[in-house]
Amino acid sequence: MAYVFYEQSGKPIVAQVMEQKEQHVHVKGIGSSLQKIKLKDVLLQTIALPTGVDAQSAAPSIEQTAQSADLEFIWECAPDEVFEFTFLAHEYFGEQANFIEQAAMWHALHHAPIYFGKKGKGQFIKQNREQIDIALAAVAKKEERLRQQAIWVDELIAGRCPDDVRKMRDAIVQKKNANDMSYKAVLAASEQLNLPIPALLLHAGAYSSAFDYHRASFISEHYPNGLAATLPMPTTDWHALPVNNVVTAFSIDDSFTTEIDDAFSVQVLDNGCQRIGVHIAAPSLVVVRDDAVDTHAASRMSTMYTPGEKVTMLPDDWVAQFSLDEGSTKPVVSIYVTFNATGETPEAQFSDVQTVIEQVHISDNLRHDVPELQLSVEDLTGERSDYPQSQALKVLWKAAQALSAQRDAMRGKPENNNRADFSFTLEKDVDVTPTGDEVVQIVQRQRGSPIDKIVSEWMIFANVRWAQMLDSHHVPALFRSQSPMGVRTSTHAQPHLAMGVPAYMWATSPLRRYADLLNQMQLRAVIDHGVTAPMQAPFKAKEVDLLKRMSAFDEKYRAYADQQNLMEKYWCLQWVKQRMNEHGHLEAPAIVIKENLMRLCDIPLYIPNFPTGDAAPSTQRILRLSNIDWVALSLDVQVVELS
């Protein structure tokens, strides 16, 4: 009875020959059906197997014999030139090497690429010694890494975080290097404990808390050089700029704003009209494309806000040089317009628009969230005058209504500004980084208050006029537009349908947003050079670098918005936790926003994928909230009562 030896997917196969042809044989292995094997693929043939070996035990015997072979000694026995495996089998096992031993030699050589290279059917050549030593060292290193990885897995499962894993924690959750052994250890441990990777790292103490995880992983990704930054102080002397002694300006911001970008002024003219000025901080006076300030601002793209924390685009001491702080005289880009409340056309209402670079004195920094500035429409249209800048605010309000009406006419419908805003206040010192367990107060504030409308309408006015100014001079910028396809940023002006304006860009927050800073740099070129601005502007039309900055800005701005939403959700859940009863429950009213989406009435905690049935929007429910998952930022929700 004849047998053949061949390999299949690297495994030794010994099969009985059932029929032999000139070019192939039909064989039958243990547990397999009849197979056709080409003779050129057969490595060995024998009439009979060695004593004590049958067809079933042949293959295991080959593997066992190969595993016990001394590869170092075999390598020493091998000739320097190409050889047949049967030759080396006789050298190693002796002249009487049997079928199993010869097959074992092939198996050993085939699975030892460190020592032997393949040269053809049944043929091998020994590797050189230096190459072998390098490969063996690499194998030893890999085995050591695997042993270390196994130790780390055990540590992580036990709730202890190795230092090497702790150092890589943020890269691990961001999946920056899936081949790193620390990532593999964390992945293995998380699979064994059936935990998501962030939860496993929390379990092991890599993060001190869920808040630490949500904050630190984001900062590591978007601020790889840390939050602190130092930039050279401005050396350009802007004090030669003319000082406008005719006007004094005031700003309107919330109490937490330290980068004051914008201010307003109102002059009463002899003809009864008012000359209104919008004044924007002018850091572009000292920023040159690709200098240290521009490079740093472009790396951050915007100030990033989360409840209780702010990471500024530019360092505080640098911002202070240009922030429109009360009592200071600062350089600004000003846009002036004459307002005639009795004008019958838009052109008659708003005329003589002028943009200049100058210095203005800032008389007041008003804060719209203090009680004295909680003004109603009646306060801004009636006789009351016991609030700061009352006469100027009344003019700005009347003009803002006219600006809004013009946009409504272009849009074809009134602007919907009834969405609720929420402010988050943490009980902590101002300059202290949150730890995640502070008491949080969340206060609802209806959008579209008169003060909000004053600020927003006049910022829109400046942004629209300056966008048109750049567009008419063929100077590119980072414009904002909206079509039926959605909002987008582009380097050429297009209408913004939702706002009802023919062109729009961000240019009124250059201390807080890179798009505004870049656009102000372009705007200065138009102010200074007029028709030659396309050649003088820092960024030219169709420039690849401008397109790259546009894409980078959009990407970073979205990331910041996502992080703000995520941290607001965290603090909403803290608000819920701080009000839970001893059973870990909170019953709270919620409102239907749309199908399968609800929001708590008191805070902006949205409950997605929650069945609302046929309930109409604004329908209220009483919900029972419990079991907060601080990693996923989710919780269990049950309807307690229909209302």
UniProtKB/TrEMBL annotation:
<dbReference type="InterPro" id="IPR012340">
    <property type="entry name" value="NA-bd_OB-fold"/>
</dbReference>
<dbReference type="InterPro" id="IPR050180">
    <property type="entry name" value="RNR_Ribonuclease"/>
</dbReference>
<dbReference type="GO" id="GO:0004540">
    <property type="term" value="F:RNA nuclease activity"/>
</dbReference>
<feature type="domain" description="RNB">
    <location>
        <begin position="235"/>
        <end position="529"/>
    </location>
</feature>
<dbReference type="Pfam" id="PF00773">
    <property type="entry name" value="RNB"/>
</dbReference>
<dbReference type="GO" id="GO:0003723">
    <property type="term" value="F:RNA binding"/>
</dbReference>
<dbReference type="GO" id="GO:0006402">
    <property type="term" value="P:mRNA catabolic process"/>
</dbReference>
<dbReference type="InterPro" id="IPR001900">
    <property type="entry name" value="RNase_II/R"/>
</dbReference>
<protein>
    <submittedName>
        <fullName>Ribonuclease II</fullName>
    </submittedName>
</protein>
<dbReference type="GO" id="GO:0005829">
    <property type="term" value="C:cytosol"/>
</dbReference>
